[in-house]
Amino acid sequence: MPIVHPVFLSLGSNIAPERHLPLAVARLQLLGDVLAASRVWQSPPADGSEQSHYLNAAVLLATEATAEELYGCRLPEIETALGRLRDPGDRYAPRTIDIDISLFD
Fold first, then answer.
1. What are the beta bridge partners of residue 100?
2. How far is CA 21 from CA 4, 12, 54, 101, in A?
3. 3 state DSSP class of 44
4. How far is residue 76 from each of residues 3, 10, 52, 85, 88, measured CA to CA in Å?
5. Is the predicted pLDDT of residue 89 greater than 80, yes or no?
6. b/e code 15-33 from CB counts within 10 Å (16+ = b)
7. Which positions ≥6 away from 57 have C-beta within 8 Å?
């Protein structure tokens, strides 16, 4: 019998967030069951720059994927599919979507 892991994910976007947050949640459904999603809230960029504020949400996902699979492959695949470009020289660059594991199991 497969093990189902509860996972709390943090999502954020400051490039067309009205489009990218729902698309990210829809893609997360392909990894398991989205059991709950928070309301969306706004926050300023972490580095204090003049870029657009972020829209953020939290999701509770029930999945058979391991933490390693999610972190190393599945979540980056979703980010890339939604146009996320990583700039190694600017870790606070604007982004279409950012998905982080907040709690696993």
1. 10
2. 24, 7, 11, 15
3. coil
4. 22, 13, 22, 10, 15
5. yes
6. bebeebbebbbebbeebbe
7. 10, 11, 12, 21, 25, 37, 38, 39, 40, 41
